[in-house]
Prior knowledge:
The protein has helices at 24-36, 88-114, 124-174, 179-247, 254-309, 313-322, 337-340; strands at residues 46-49, 60-67, 70-75. The protein is built from seven helices and three strands. By secondary structure, the protein is mainly alpha-helical. It has a three-stranded antiparallel β-sheet with strand order 1-2-3, with no helix packed on it. Helix 2 (88-114) crosses helix 4. Strand 2 (60-67) and strand 3 form a beta hairpin.
Amino acid sequence: MAQESPKNSAAEIPVTSNGEVDDSHEHGYNRDLKCSLPSGLGLSETQITSHGFDSAKEGVIEAGASQGGQRTHTKSGPVILADEIKNPAMEKLELVRKWSLNTYKCTRQIISEKLGRGSRTVDLELEAQIDILRDNKKKYEHILKLAQTLSTQLFQMVHTQKQLGDAFADLSLKSLDLHEEFGYNADTQKLLAKNGETLLGAINFFIASVNTLVNKTIEDTLMTVKQYENARIEYDAYRTDLEELNLGPRDANTLPKIEQSQHLFQIHKEKYDRMRSDVSVKLKFLEENKVKVLRNQLVLFHSAVAAYFAGNQKQLELTLKQFHVKLKTPGVDAPSWLEEQ
Protein backbone atom coordinates (compact mmCIF):
# COMPACT_ATOMS: atom_id res chain seq x y z
CA MET A 1 0.00 0.00 0.00
CA ALA A 2 1.35 3.36 -0.97
CA GLN A 3 2.06 5.73 1.90
CA GLU A 4 0.56 9.18 1.85
CA SER A 5 3.05 11.97 1.54
CA PRO A 6 3.21 14.26 4.56
CA LYS A 7 1.35 17.50 4.09
CA ASN A 8 3.10 20.77 4.34
CA SER A 9 1.56 23.10 6.90
CA ALA A 10 1.62 25.87 4.32
CA ALA A 11 -0.48 23.77 1.96
CA GLU A 12 -3.38 23.99 4.38
CA ILE A 13 -3.66 27.77 4.00
CA PRO A 14 -6.02 28.60 1.15
CA VAL A 15 -4.65 31.13 -1.31
CA THR A 16 -6.62 33.13 -3.91
CA SER A 17 -5.72 33.56 -7.45
CA ASN A 18 -3.87 36.81 -6.87
CA GLY A 19 -1.67 35.32 -4.13
CA GLU A 20 -3.57 36.72 -1.12
CA VAL A 21 -4.63 34.57 1.84
CA ASP A 22 -8.24 33.54 1.72
CA ASP A 23 -9.77 34.53 5.11
CA SER A 24 -13.25 33.30 4.36
CA HIS A 25 -12.82 30.54 6.97
CA GLU A 26 -11.84 33.06 9.59
CA HIS A 27 -14.86 35.21 8.76
CA GLY A 28 -17.02 32.15 9.05
CA TYR A 29 -15.51 31.29 12.43
CA ASN A 30 -16.11 34.81 13.72
CA ARG A 31 -19.71 34.65 12.48
CA ASP A 32 -20.29 31.37 14.35
CA LEU A 33 -18.69 32.78 17.45
CA LYS A 34 -20.92 35.84 17.24
CA CYS A 35 -23.99 33.67 17.23
CA SER A 36 -22.79 31.69 20.23
CA LEU A 37 -21.98 34.75 22.40
CA PRO A 38 -24.62 36.33 24.67
CA SER A 39 -26.81 38.97 23.15
CA GLY A 40 -25.30 41.76 25.25
CA LEU A 41 -21.72 41.21 23.98
CA GLY A 42 -20.82 42.03 20.39
CA LEU A 43 -17.82 41.03 18.34
CA SER A 44 -16.77 44.63 18.18
CA GLU A 45 -16.29 44.46 21.94
CA THR A 46 -14.46 41.14 21.95
CA GLN A 47 -10.80 40.53 21.22
CA ILE A 48 -9.79 36.93 20.47
CA THR A 49 -6.20 35.89 20.78
CA SER A 50 -5.44 32.40 19.60
CA HIS A 51 -2.16 30.65 20.08
CA GLY A 52 -0.75 27.67 18.39
CA PHE A 53 -1.24 24.19 19.77
CA ASP A 54 2.44 24.04 20.61
CA SER A 55 2.13 27.10 22.91
CA ALA A 56 1.96 26.48 26.66
CA LYS A 57 -0.53 29.33 27.11
CA GLU A 58 -4.24 28.93 26.65
CA GLY A 59 -6.41 31.26 24.63
CA VAL A 60 -7.45 34.41 26.51
CA ILE A 61 -10.71 36.18 25.83
CA GLU A 62 -10.79 39.79 26.91
CA ALA A 63 -14.33 41.04 27.22
CA GLY A 64 -15.08 44.70 27.59
CA ALA A 65 -18.45 45.46 29.13
CA SER A 66 -19.41 49.02 28.32
CA GLN A 67 -20.98 50.63 31.35
CA GLY A 68 -21.33 54.37 31.52
CA GLY A 69 -18.47 54.99 29.12
CA GLN A 70 -16.05 52.87 31.15
CA ARG A 71 -14.79 49.45 30.25
CA THR A 72 -13.76 46.78 32.75
CA HIS A 73 -11.22 44.31 31.38
CA THR A 74 -11.06 40.83 32.86
CA LYS A 75 -8.95 37.81 31.97
CA SER A 76 -10.06 34.20 32.18
CA GLY A 77 -12.37 34.42 35.14
CA PRO A 78 -15.70 35.69 36.39
CA VAL A 79 -16.53 39.27 35.56
CA ILE A 80 -16.26 41.47 38.69
CA LEU A 81 -17.69 44.96 38.68
CA ALA A 82 -15.38 47.63 40.03
CA ASP A 83 -18.22 49.27 41.99
CA GLU A 84 -18.55 46.19 44.21
CA ILE A 85 -14.90 46.28 45.36
CA LYS A 86 -14.23 48.00 48.69
CA ASN A 87 -10.66 49.14 48.99
CA PRO A 88 -9.46 49.17 52.65
CA ALA A 89 -6.77 51.68 51.73
CA MET A 90 -9.38 54.13 50.46
CA GLU A 91 -11.44 53.72 53.63
CA LYS A 92 -8.38 54.42 55.81
CA LEU A 93 -7.53 57.40 53.65
CA GLU A 94 -11.03 58.77 54.14
CA LEU A 95 -10.76 58.32 57.92
CA VAL A 96 -7.42 60.13 57.94
CA ARG A 97 -8.91 62.92 55.86
CA LYS A 98 -11.83 63.38 58.28
CA TRP A 99 -9.50 63.28 61.30
CA SER A 100 -7.17 65.85 59.74
CA LEU A 101 -10.05 68.16 58.90
CA ASN A 102 -11.49 67.89 62.41
CA THR A 103 -8.05 68.48 63.98
CA TYR A 104 -7.51 71.53 61.80
CA LYS A 105 -10.86 73.02 62.76
CA CYS A 106 -10.30 72.43 66.49
CA THR A 107 -6.75 73.82 66.38
CA ARG A 108 -7.96 76.92 64.58
CA GLN A 109 -10.69 77.37 67.20
CA ILE A 110 -8.22 77.04 70.10
CA ILE A 111 -5.79 79.55 68.55
CA SER A 112 -8.63 81.92 67.80
CA GLU A 113 -9.84 81.78 71.42
CA LYS A 114 -6.34 82.36 72.83
CA LEU A 115 -5.86 85.37 70.55
CA GLY A 116 -9.23 86.75 71.66
CA ARG A 117 -10.74 86.67 68.18
CA GLY A 118 -13.10 83.73 68.45
CA SER A 119 -16.11 83.20 70.68
CA ARG A 120 -16.53 80.23 73.00
CA THR A 121 -19.53 78.66 74.66
CA VAL A 122 -19.42 79.00 78.46
CA ASP A 123 -21.58 77.37 81.11
CA LEU A 124 -20.81 79.63 84.06
CA GLU A 125 -22.25 77.36 86.75
CA LEU A 126 -20.56 74.22 85.43
CA GLU A 127 -17.24 75.98 84.85
CA ALA A 128 -17.25 77.24 88.44
CA GLN A 129 -17.83 73.71 89.78
CA ILE A 130 -14.97 72.37 87.64
CA ASP A 131 -12.58 75.07 88.90
CA ILE A 132 -13.49 74.26 92.50
CA LEU A 133 -12.89 70.56 91.86
CA ARG A 134 -9.44 71.18 90.40
CA ASP A 135 -8.50 73.47 93.26
CA ASN A 136 -9.70 70.92 95.84
CA LYS A 137 -7.72 68.17 94.11
CA LYS A 138 -4.51 70.16 94.53
CA LYS A 139 -5.24 70.74 98.23
CA TYR A 140 -6.09 67.08 98.83
CA GLU A 141 -2.87 66.05 97.10
CA HIS A 142 -0.95 68.35 99.46
CA ILE A 143 -2.66 66.79 102.51
CA LEU A 144 -1.93 63.32 101.12
CA LYS A 145 1.76 64.15 100.71
CA LEU A 146 2.02 65.48 104.27
CA ALA A 147 0.23 62.43 105.69
CA GLN A 148 2.66 60.14 103.83
CA THR A 149 5.59 62.09 105.29
CA LEU A 150 4.10 61.76 108.77
CA SER A 151 3.65 58.01 108.27
CA THR A 152 7.28 57.62 107.21
CA GLN A 153 8.57 59.60 110.17
CA LEU A 154 6.31 57.77 112.62
CA PHE A 155 7.48 54.42 111.26
CA GLN A 156 11.11 55.42 111.83
CA MET A 157 10.31 56.59 115.37
CA VAL A 158 8.49 53.33 116.20
CA HIS A 159 11.40 51.34 114.84
CA THR A 160 13.82 53.35 117.00
CA GLN A 161 11.64 52.88 120.09
CA LYS A 162 11.65 49.12 119.55
CA GLN A 163 15.42 49.05 119.32
CA LEU A 164 15.74 51.25 122.41
CA GLY A 165 13.36 49.03 124.37
CA ASP A 166 15.35 45.92 123.43
CA ALA A 167 18.58 47.62 124.52
CA PHE A 168 17.08 48.63 127.91
CA ALA A 169 15.78 45.08 128.42
CA ASP A 170 19.20 43.61 127.68
CA LEU A 171 20.92 45.96 130.13
CA SER A 172 18.27 45.20 132.75
CA LEU A 173 19.32 41.57 132.72
CA LYS A 174 23.04 42.31 132.80
CA SER A 175 23.10 45.21 135.30
CA LEU A 176 22.00 44.00 138.72
CA ASP A 177 22.30 47.43 140.32
CA LEU A 178 20.10 49.13 137.64
CA HIS A 179 17.81 46.21 136.92
CA GLU A 180 14.59 47.99 137.85
CA GLU A 181 15.47 51.31 136.19
CA PHE A 182 16.38 49.70 132.89
CA GLY A 183 13.29 47.54 133.16
CA TYR A 184 10.93 50.53 133.54
CA ASN A 185 12.40 52.25 130.52
CA ALA A 186 12.23 49.05 128.47
CA ASP A 187 8.53 48.62 129.25
CA THR A 188 7.81 52.29 128.46
CA GLN A 189 9.53 52.20 125.08
CA LYS A 190 7.82 48.95 124.12
CA LEU A 191 4.42 50.41 125.06
CA LEU A 192 5.11 53.53 123.03
CA ALA A 193 6.17 51.39 120.07
CA LYS A 194 2.97 49.36 120.33
CA ASN A 195 0.79 52.46 120.45
CA GLY A 196 2.80 53.94 117.60
CA GLU A 197 2.07 50.90 115.45
CA THR A 198 -1.62 51.31 116.20
CA LEU A 199 -1.52 55.00 115.25
CA LEU A 200 0.52 54.11 112.15
CA GLY A 201 -2.24 51.71 111.07
CA ALA A 202 -4.86 54.47 111.42
CA ILE A 203 -2.73 56.96 109.44
CA ASN A 204 -2.06 54.45 106.65
CA PHE A 205 -5.79 53.69 106.45
CA PHE A 206 -6.45 57.43 106.16
CA ILE A 207 -3.82 57.72 103.42
CA ALA A 208 -5.26 54.81 101.42
CA SER A 209 -8.79 56.24 101.52
CA VAL A 210 -7.73 59.77 100.53
CA ASN A 211 -5.48 58.37 97.80
CA THR A 212 -8.43 56.45 96.32
CA LEU A 213 -10.56 59.58 96.44
CA VAL A 214 -7.96 61.81 94.80
CA ASN A 215 -6.29 59.55 92.25
CA LYS A 216 -9.25 57.40 91.23
CA THR A 217 -12.61 59.01 91.97
CA ILE A 218 -11.67 62.64 91.30
CA GLU A 219 -9.36 61.68 88.43
CA ASP A 220 -12.16 59.74 86.75
CA THR A 221 -14.41 62.80 86.96
CA LEU A 222 -11.66 65.01 85.54
CA MET A 223 -11.30 62.63 82.59
CA THR A 224 -14.98 63.17 81.84
CA VAL A 225 -14.40 66.92 82.20
CA LYS A 226 -11.58 66.64 79.64
CA GLN A 227 -13.91 64.90 77.19
CA TYR A 228 -16.51 67.60 77.81
CA GLU A 229 -13.97 70.34 77.04
CA ASN A 230 -12.94 68.62 73.80
CA ALA A 231 -16.60 68.31 72.80
CA ARG A 232 -17.06 72.02 73.54
CA ILE A 233 -14.13 72.96 71.29
CA GLU A 234 -15.51 70.82 68.44
CA TYR A 235 -18.96 72.31 68.91
CA ASP A 236 -17.64 75.88 68.75
CA ALA A 237 -15.43 75.06 65.75
CA TYR A 238 -18.33 73.71 63.67
CA ARG A 239 -20.59 76.50 64.94
CA THR A 240 -18.10 79.08 63.67
CA ASP A 241 -17.93 77.36 60.26
CA LEU A 242 -21.71 77.40 59.97
CA GLU A 243 -21.91 81.07 60.92
CA GLU A 244 -19.28 81.97 58.30
CA LEU A 245 -21.13 80.06 55.59
CA ASN A 246 -24.45 81.68 56.51
CA LEU A 247 -22.87 85.12 56.16
CA GLY A 248 -21.74 84.33 52.61
CA PRO A 249 -23.76 84.14 49.39
CA ARG A 250 -26.36 81.43 48.86
CA ASP A 251 -26.21 79.79 45.44
CA ALA A 252 -26.15 76.33 43.92
CA ASN A 253 -22.53 75.80 45.00
CA THR A 254 -22.81 77.00 48.60
CA LEU A 255 -26.18 75.48 49.54
CA PRO A 256 -24.86 71.87 49.70
CA LYS A 257 -21.94 73.08 51.83
CA ILE A 258 -24.31 74.89 54.19
CA GLU A 259 -26.50 71.80 54.54
CA GLN A 260 -23.46 69.61 55.24
CA SER A 261 -22.14 72.12 57.77
CA GLN A 262 -25.55 72.26 59.45
CA HIS A 263 -25.59 68.47 59.73
CA LEU A 264 -22.11 68.32 61.29
CA PHE A 265 -22.97 71.16 63.64
CA GLN A 266 -26.05 69.31 64.89
CA ILE A 267 -24.01 66.14 65.52
CA HIS A 268 -21.42 67.98 67.62
CA LYS A 269 -24.09 69.98 69.44
CA GLU A 270 -25.77 66.75 70.58
CA LYS A 271 -22.40 65.39 71.68
CA TYR A 272 -21.65 68.59 73.61
CA ASP A 273 -25.03 68.53 75.38
CA ARG A 274 -24.58 64.86 76.27
CA MET A 275 -21.10 65.42 77.72
CA ARG A 276 -22.28 68.45 79.69
CA SER A 277 -25.03 66.36 81.25
CA ASP A 278 -22.54 63.59 82.11
CA VAL A 279 -20.20 66.05 83.82
CA SER A 280 -23.03 67.53 85.88
CA VAL A 281 -24.12 64.11 87.09
CA LYS A 282 -20.58 63.02 87.95
CA LEU A 283 -19.86 66.21 89.84
CA LYS A 284 -22.99 65.70 91.92
CA PHE A 285 -22.14 62.10 92.83
CA LEU A 286 -18.51 63.01 93.47
CA GLU A 287 -19.49 65.71 95.95
CA GLU A 288 -21.71 63.29 97.87
CA ASN A 289 -19.04 60.59 97.92
CA LYS A 290 -16.29 63.05 98.91
CA VAL A 291 -18.22 64.36 101.92
CA LYS A 292 -19.02 60.84 103.12
CA VAL A 293 -15.45 59.54 102.77
CA LEU A 294 -13.67 62.55 104.20
CA ARG A 295 -16.02 62.87 107.17
CA ASN A 296 -15.24 59.30 108.30
CA GLN A 297 -11.52 59.59 107.63
CA LEU A 298 -11.13 62.92 109.42
CA VAL A 299 -12.94 61.59 112.50
CA LEU A 300 -10.67 58.53 112.49
CA PHE A 301 -7.51 60.63 112.14
CA HIS A 302 -8.49 63.00 114.93
CA SER A 303 -9.56 60.28 117.37
CA ALA A 304 -6.44 58.17 116.77
CA VAL A 305 -3.99 61.05 117.14
CA ALA A 306 -5.75 62.39 120.25
CA ALA A 307 -5.81 58.98 121.95
CA TYR A 308 -2.14 58.32 121.09
CA PHE A 309 -0.77 61.54 122.57
CA ALA A 310 -3.08 61.24 125.58
CA GLY A 311 -1.56 57.84 126.28
CA ASN A 312 -5.01 56.24 126.16
CA GLN A 313 -4.23 52.85 124.73
CA LYS A 314 -7.76 51.47 125.11
CA GLN A 315 -9.33 54.45 123.35
CA LEU A 316 -6.82 54.13 120.53
CA GLU A 317 -7.63 50.47 119.99
CA LEU A 318 -11.36 51.18 120.26
CA THR A 319 -11.10 53.85 117.57
CA LEU A 320 -9.54 51.40 115.14
CA LYS A 321 -12.18 48.78 115.87
CA GLN A 322 -14.92 51.35 115.31
CA PHE A 323 -13.63 52.10 111.80
CA HIS A 324 -12.81 48.44 111.04
CA VAL A 325 -9.09 49.06 110.66
CA LYS A 326 -7.08 45.83 110.71
CA LEU A 327 -3.50 45.95 111.93
CA LYS A 328 -0.74 43.62 110.85
CA THR A 329 0.70 41.68 113.75
CA PRO A 330 4.44 42.40 114.02
CA GLY A 331 6.62 39.47 113.06
CA VAL A 332 3.77 37.52 111.46
CA ASP A 333 4.00 36.82 107.76
CA ALA A 334 1.03 36.95 105.45
CA PRO A 335 -0.90 33.67 105.16
CA SER A 336 -0.04 31.43 102.27
CA TRP A 337 -2.43 30.87 99.41
CA LEU A 338 -3.21 27.40 100.78
CA GLU A 339 -4.25 28.86 104.14
CA GLU A 340 -6.43 31.45 102.40
CA GLN A 341 -8.25 28.68 100.56
